[in-house]
Structure formats: C-alpha cells, structure tokens
Amino acid sequence: MQIELKIKPARRWARKNIGMEYINLIGFRYDEPQRVSKNKSRWQKVKNIYPLFENKINKLMVNEYWKSKPYNLEIPAILGNCTLCFMKGKNNIINILKHDPNLADKWINDEENSEYKYFKDISIKELKKISQMPDLFSAIELDLLTPAYDCACTT
Q1: Which residues lie across from 18 on neighbouring strands?
Q2: Distance CA 137, CA 155 (A)
Q3: Which of 21, 36, 86, 131 has the lowest CB atom count within 10 Å?
Q4: What integer is the mean pLDDT of 51-75?
Q5: What is the DSSP string of the chain?
Q6: What value does the mean pLDDT of the chain take?
C-alpha cells in the first residue's frame, strides 16, 4: 500500500525533524487539477500548498524552463524524479524495467522490508520478472497499415 511506503515515512520524518506544524509543498501542476482536488479533499493535519498549481504553471511551462538551462538532466520524461512511482501504473513500470531492470532493486528492497506493497495485487519484484519476459511480437514483422479485414472503423 503506497501510503505505508511513501506518505507515512515522509510524514514521520517531518514530524521528527521539523515538528508537528509544517508546510507541505506539493508539486502538482496547473494541468493536474484532479490531483490537487483529490489531495485537498483528504483530511490533513498539516498545511498543504501547491505552488505550481497556484501560479498556473503547466507541463509545457516546466519543460520550457528546463530547455532554457545550459544543461540537460537527460532524464526521460517517463522517469522523472521518482522512477517507479505507483502513480505511473503497472504498464509504464514494466516498460521502464525493460530498459533498466536495476531500477527495481531499491523498490523491491522497500517491499521486502515491509509488510506492504506499492500495488495491492502485485509486487515490484513480480513486475520486474514480467518486464524481463521475451517480447512475443518483437520478432514478427507487423504490417500496421493494412487492417486484418475490412470494417467500418478502418475505412
């Protein structure tokens, strides 16, 4: 369960190192109103603020900001700063692990040292195994321009 492996440990750290009253800065962008709304509806003991959302900063603006810098972090957008975040979904995590299976190691370690998993129905270790299975279609040449049969949706 994600709350046990991400949110509660961060909250415990903050309370121990900062105290019971602190401001939680959450980086939801202006083009993510559903995330802001969902987060605001939760009962919180701390004050949450959303500086990107409140300043109407969207993904395009963030990307333009980073393009203006003299350096590039060279991190694919799908990875971001939280490589296997459960919010990416299982399919994206499997695709990420196809390219870099070692990214799973610390996440597997988290799950093995806890009674919780990031997903209710599958572990990161199992997702890593799935990602390493051979791709059944990679060796087959597919003609994507010719439909298998004529129907209304292909004309």
Answers
A1: none
A2: 26
A3: 21
A4: 91
A5: -HIIIIIHHHHHHHHHHT-S--EEE----TT-HHHHHHHHHS--SSEEE-HHHHTT--HHHHHHHHHTSS------TTTTTSTT-GGG-HHHHHHHHHH-GGGHHHHHHHHHTSS--SSSS--HHHHHHHHTS--TTTTSPP-TTS-SS--GGG-
A6: 82
